[in-house]
Design a protein that fits this description.
21% strand; 42% helix; alpha/beta; 5 helices; 6 strands
Amino acid sequence: MKIIDYLSDDLVLTGLEPADKNQLCQFMVDHLIDKGRITPERRQILLDKLLEREALSSTGIGGGVAIPHASGENIDDMIVTVGQIPGGIDYQSIDEKPVYLVFMIVGSERVPRVHLQLLATIVRACKNNVFVESLIAAKTPEQAYKIIAEHDNS
């Protein structure tokens, strides 16, 4: 499984400056709406699901990375969007360090197995410190997407 099978270059955001993880989720969900990937009517439902998941336990996996994820009944395909936060934010991560890189997964409730496989693929990729550091240092969304694509194809 490849991350780029679910991520397009227009869903990579660099230079984000959210105040907290709630605002970060809002930025990323609004970007999905702006790009026509989800409908505006689904915004609050998706935000509620993402924040409910965060309330269970933080999706900050350590190493400067978080992987918020949620599924929706009216979403046809899996979607990944990536956010880079150069200044970092407090995300209540397991290592208690700031998060600089976020892979948000929006899944379809119709394919829960694919959702879990994609989550595992992203976790494995983010265990590669060079990969994570390269993404944090990327200057443009295009550069970040290229780093992900090259990692997927290596």
